[in-house]
Specification:
By secondary structure, the chain is an alpha/beta fold. It has a single domain, classed as Purple Acid Phosphatase, chain A, domain 2, CATH 3.60.21. It is built from 4 helices and 13 strands. It is globular and about 45 Å long. The N and C termini lie close together (9 Å).
Length: 199
């Protein structure tokens, strides 16, 4: 399955400089957060395929005005063509009033609430987040700290992939696009990443 994963920065190739046919052959689009409503609606309309999304720390407006035609998978397990996706958006809490900001304890509670849904679906294939896991592509600053509970999630459920954004690759030349943690391939999808998803 050919999946376009997007996060944080609008891709000029797929938006501003878009040409007809560039989304042909894409089976699914996944947004890892912090992208405008208009951009997501553009992709889902011209892509002619489902668009799944989680919210980033700058997506407070989605609480009242979610992107039309897109499927929010926050706190859900969603199946598409037999592949099981779990969604846990948001970032580490670095200010008091962000809707999609969480302490470590709050994110761990969100994961516990997914337990029955994951069991009902007999596991999970892809974890979709906004923030990275702690020590796996995050930064030392509080706003870009990863969650330790994501490590425990991968240790327990062994998803094939974890897709995230939040840490822009232009923040530093040593920020990798992909890395491996146990059985999970972690992908920083900042901008756009084309994934050949095989489960």
């Amino acid at each position: 399955m050919k999946v376009l994963v997007v996060a944080d920065e609008e891709s000029r190739y797929y938006y501003e400089c878009y040409q007809p046919g560039r989304l042909d052959g894409i089976d699914l689009i996944i947004s890892c957060g912090d992208l405008s409503r208009s951009y997501l609606e553009f992709l889902v309309t011209l892509g002619n395929c489902p668009l799944l999304y989680v919210c980033g720390n700058h997506d407070d407006a989605f609480a009242d005005h979610p992107p039309e035609g897109c499927i929010c998978i926050e706190g859900r397990v969603f199946r598409y063509r037999g592949i099981r996706f779990a969604g846990l958006g948001g970032s580490y809490r670095y200010q008091p009033d962000g809707i999609y900001m969480y302490t470590e304890r709050q994110m761990a509670r969100r994961i516990r609430k997914l337990w029955w849904k994951i069991r009902k679906n007999k596991g999970i294939d892809v974890l979709v987040t906004h923030a990275p896991a702690f020590g796996q592509g995050d930064l030392d600053t509080l706003p870009h700290r990863g969650f330790r509970c994501f490590l425990k999630f991968m240790e327990k459920y062994r998803p094939r992939y974890m897709l995230h954004g939040h840490v822009h690759r232009n923040y530093g030349f040593k920020i990798p696009v992909t890395r491996q943690y146990l059985d999970t391939t972690i992908i920083n999808a900042c901008g756009a990443y084309l994934l050949d998803l095989q489960i």
